[in-house]
Design brief:
This protein is of the alpha+beta class. The chain is built from 2 helices and 4 strands; from the N terminus they run E-H-E-E-E-H. It has a single domain, classed as Ribosome hibernation promotion factor-like (Double Stranded RNA Binding Domain, 2-Layer Sandwich). It starts with a strand and ends in a 10-residue tail after the last helix.
Length: about 110
């Protein structure tokens, strides 16, 4: 699973942010890593230099093999919280998507001979 991190020019400490995103995303969705080809993280400071409320936004886009991308976002007062909450939303969205696909596949008929 490839993870790409994109930040705006208001996010400082790029190397630390990249490590944070990798740790959060890998730790949260690692069980789906065989189905995910790429995750893109887009991080921004919505208020720039001002500090007011939920300034940081994290958008995560997961590309699952053979499926449409799944996109989630979260805004929080810190970059750490925005990333962690977005990763949890992504996990729930992937679970839901893969569960719906699994539910559509008909179960084998036990009365039918192979």
């Amino acid at each position: 699973m490839q993870i790409q991190v994109h930040t705006d020019n208001h996010i400082t400490g790029r190397e630390d942010v990249v490590r944070l995103v990798h740790a959060s995303v890998e730790g949260t969705i690692t069980r789906f890593s065989d189905r995910i080809t790429r995750v893109e993280a887009h991080l921004s400071d919505t208020n720039g230099h001002k500090s007011k409320g939920d300034d940081f936004r994290c958008v995560l886009e997961a590309r699952l093999a053979g499926l449409q991308p799944i996109v989630v976002s979260h805004q929080g007062p810190t970059i750490e919280l925005a990333v962690a909450e977005a990763a949890e939303k992504l996990e729930r969205s992937i679970e839901s998507k893969l569960g719906r696909i699994h539910d559509r596949v008909p179960a084998p008929d036990p009365d039918q001979e192979p």
